[in-house]
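Re: folding output
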Amino acid sequence: MEGSSCGTPMDCNDNNAAIHPGATESCTDGVDNNCNNLIDATDPNAAGCPVVSCTDMDGDNYAIEGGSCGPIDCNDADASVNPGAIELCDDGFDNNCDVNIDAADAACQAMSTGDDPVLEERHEESRRKRGGYSGAYYSSDDDEGESRRARSSRRNRGGDRERD
């Protein structure tokens, strides 16, 4: 290797004249072009790297792009819905962006069996913060066969208003 005993930086590839200390690091070739042990985008001085712009409209630190921006935010209009959120097991939404809603989410399944008291407490805390229903995940049916969850959902849509 050239330069190691001359007091100058060491050439890391004598077989390629384009690779040497002081060369411009190319962001797209998978090679350490300037012999600083940083390859492509890991070198802050690399040329030709794509500019990554992450969209986070709700300020929850999750972006809609995914990839180098991190896990995909499935609802960038609501900061309480993101990959790091707790799944609320009675609201009809995918709160934690794992494509599973309420009873289909593994977190809710663990809660319904009482297997995870820590998860249950986190769920209740999250519900209190959002001002939502606080209580058991599943409830027994009333006399007409309608569960509390179904009644609550219907009421939230305005389908159970008392008339004067």
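--- second protein (sequence, then structure) ---
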Amino acid sequence: MIGLAEVSRALARRWPLAVPEFSPATRNRLKFAAWAAVGIWSAYGILEVVRFWHFSGGGADWANLAGATHGNPYDTLGFRWSPIAAWLLALIVPFGLPLWQISHFVVLALLRPRWMALAVLAWWPFWHDVMNGNVLTFVFVAAWLAITGSRPATLAFYTLVVLMPRPLMLPVTAWLLWNEPWSRRWFIAIVAAHLGLVLASGLGGDWLHRLLETSAAEVHHPWNWLPSRWIGLAWIPVGLACAAWLTRRGRLGFASVLASPYLFPDYLLLVLLELAPRQTPSAIANGE
């Protein structure tokens, strides 16, 4: 199959002005400019998050999670997780929002290589996640460790998938199931055990209804940065097709954000998966 680089060189030979060939020095300068632009944007985003945090107090998502620990969790409009997750939250919520926010920083210590924790701290969607008391940081850390070779993290990620299913978790899940045959039976076992608990809770119907109404409502949210904000659910097949194409090529960061029907700021934390070295536990076991 002809790659993009070959096509670019062919076009450059046929129409020299159409696709210019840059020198290594020019390419380096363009890369530096791109990274500088990202850095400036992220710094501005962090300042805006801190400013909003100071005036609002943060914890918008945490309030939804805390509200789900009393009675029927789906009486809380913003709660869309599994009813089993609501039971687990009942054990966490009493410790309070500040400790929950601190745990976002603590979990970064698990990342390898060490510099990745600094990259996350410099990326403004992380601060947005911390401010609101959401869970994308934990999803990201579990995904990073799983695709870089940790079997316990793979099982932890599967557990998060069933407890708080989001379309943006599909690419990493599919990649792990394809590349990690050993994990497939564990995934089935986790799904089956969770399904049994959901059915026993009697809240399965309420949960399904919440999941369906959430997708339709969130796409028109003013903070949604995907085309679905304007074209609605018609974006879903386009996004999923792009996500599938990217997943096949191991571009799990971009695939994750495109797999979602909507894109909120903290979802961009998953883009950092593009920096992850692809080394599965099976590859490690085979000495690759």
